[in-house]
Amino acid sequence: MNLKKFSTDMARGAGIGIAMIIPGVSGGTLAVLLDVYDKLIDALSNLRRDFKNSFMFLLPILLGAGLAVAAAYFPLKYALKYAPFPTVMLFAGLMLGSCPKIIKDGIKKGFGKFDALSVILPLALVIGICFIPGLGTADLSASMPVYGYFLLILIGAVASCALVIPGISGSMLLLIFGYYEAIFDTVSALRTDFFHSLLVLALFAVGLLIGFFSIAKLMKLLMTKFPRGTNWAIIGFVIGSIPAIFITYNSNFPDFVYSSLNAAHIAVGCVLGALGIIASYALTAFAEGKTAKAARKTDEIQADTASDEPDDGQNV
């Protein structure tokens, strides 16, 4: 085992892991930036056929992601509790900053009348979910209904979108469905109700694994068969998530009331929102630059190879 490569992949996994638990940040986007996205999709899709190589590639990334989630858990929890408005402004900024890149990519691929539906339907779905009565914060206590345990697997599969689909924040979807804060509380409850909390987290993890493998295969199929429509659907999800995060925070966090905000919170929130836009825009622009550079290098290699081939007309 190459220790240097293992450590590098763990560091990449750490970046992806932090992105996965921050609403508005896509772990898939981080995977693209860190130049591991294609390999991740291939490893997840081919785990059964090529278990050894796929597992050895995924192991350091998963370890790094797990360690990063554990390290960022408490800071993020306290930020949501004591500074909800600045935190939500940062999340919104991170989402907003990614929009120009994905919209530009979509325009390059074209836009038809059916593509409009690909944008509108996901956008309306994300916002509409926020207004479903009784959604709120999910109950993951020991008194939760039996169907809630099975629903956890489905929710875990939804959360896996954070890694598999670039531009989609699985943690943002968790926040909309009311499971984001509930999962955080369950982690804290390991000290007081260990076995129930462990069961909840285990079912959620099962859903994550199922989602990783199934959505990876689905993404490969959709991007191959319907690349343009899939891309515009992703854009619809991202754009819809921006107003949705404000609606969700306003309903789920009692302290997040616009009329009670003071000048300091508003100022800090505006600064963090601007920083989020700049950081996310710079991140996606850098990823685009790396992709373009790799494409140019590939074209140069192909051109050199073609020039070295003998001309059939000269070898008669």
Question: What keywords describe this structure?
Answer:
316 residues; mainly alpha; 78% helix
Q: Can you walk through the features of this model?
A:
By secondary structure, the chain is mainly alpha-helical. The chain has a domain of 207 residues. 78% of the residues lie in helices and 0% in strands. The protein is built from 13 helices and no strands. The radius of gyration is 21 Å and the shape is globular.
What's a quick, concise take on this entry?
This protein is mostly helical and 316 residues long.
Structural class: mainly alpha
Query: Largest beta sheet, briefly?
Result: none
Low-pLDDT stretches: none
Shape: globular
* Structure summary, number of beta strands: 0
Query: What is the gyration radius calculated from CA atoms?
Result: 21 Å
Strand content: under 5%
Averaged pLDDT: 79
Which helices and strands, and how do they pair?
Blueprint: H1 3-21, H2 27-33, H3 37-45, H4 51-82, H5 84-108, H6 113-129, H7 146-159, H8 161-164, H9 170-177, H10 180-188, H11 194-225, H12 227-252, H13 263-308
Helix pairs in contact: 1-2, 1-4, 2-13, 3-4, 3-11, 4-5, 5-12, 5-13, 6-12, 7-11, 9-12, 11-12
